[in-house]
Inverse folding.
């Protein structure tokens, strides 16, 4: 199977996800989709259908509901209790709460983004990575989070490891912006897939360690560009540091979208609110 293979649950839910994204994007995206959301009437010409679509009224009740729930959840700022002290866990978590993703996003704002995605499509994920930053602390490196949309979590596998269900593989799609070597104002978009995998440790029966593969799309195929083992204090990790976010739990299984029923009613209202 190619590296960009997708999970069966991903394939089954992709169309509802795309519908939700279009509806949340608003009237322009919904009308741009044409007959997908507003079927053409019998014997309508192209010009007649265009006029028919332009007269249709789309009231975005879904987006308003999503925004309302988000405001309800965060009507009060969350309280975060951090360990005391200017060193160790206290300093590390304090830095994380101020900048959760190494892009200046506070933990509060990051959490709000996660909840927004879960309200929208019922799913997203966070990879906890480790990288360098000028923190002023020893080593200059710390943990940070990277959020992935539901559509970018392509594949996943679990297995029974030491008596518990463990995530053993996750495939994540990323689009990198690469500056052109000649024109500094020209940016190319390069599709890559980051594969997080638990692999057996050579010579240690039953032991697993975390490894990362970076694949990049080339002409007609995928090429392995990098293979490495992230280390923490010189030791490999025995778990994949990836967390699924869902409306009911943090399991890998795809859950129903919280606003799925509202989307159907919203689109039905759109189809009926047409001035002939």
């Amino acid at each position: 199977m190619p590296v960009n293979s997708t999970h069966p649950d991903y394939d089954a839910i992709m169309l509802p996800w795309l519908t939700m994204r279009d509806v949340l994007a608003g009237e322009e995206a919904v009308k741009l989709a044409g007959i997908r959301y507003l079927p053409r009437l019998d014997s309508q010409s192209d010009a007649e259908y265009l006029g028919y679509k332009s007269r249709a009224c789309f009231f975005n009740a879904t987006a308003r509901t999503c925004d309302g729930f988000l405001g309800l959840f965060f009507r009060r700022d969350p309280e975060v209790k951090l360990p005391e002290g200017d060193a160790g866990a206290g300093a590390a978590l304090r830095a994380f709460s101020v900048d959760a993703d190494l892009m200046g996003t506070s933990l509060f704002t990051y959490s709000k983004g996660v909840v927004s995605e879960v309200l929208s499509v019922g799913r997203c994920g966070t990879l906890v990575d480790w990288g360098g930053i000028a923190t002023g602390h020893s080593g200059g490196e710390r943990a940070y989070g990277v959020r992935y949309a539901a559509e970018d979590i392509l594949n996943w596998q679990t297995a029974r490891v030491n008596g518990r269900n463990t995530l053993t593989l996750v495939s994540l799609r990323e689009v990198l912006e690469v500056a052109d070597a000649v024109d500094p104002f020209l940016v190319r978009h390069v599709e890559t897939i980051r594969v997080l995998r638990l692999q057996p440790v050579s010579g240690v029966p039953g032991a697993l360690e975390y490894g990362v593969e970076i694949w990049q799309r080339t002409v007609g195929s995928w090429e392995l560009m990098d293979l490495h083992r992230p280390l923490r204090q010189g030791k490999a990790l025995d778990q994949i540091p990836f967390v699924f976010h869902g409306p009911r739990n943090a399991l890998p299984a795809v859950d129903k979208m919280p606003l799925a029923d509202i989307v159907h009613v919203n689109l039905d209202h759109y189809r009926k609110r047409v001035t002939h």
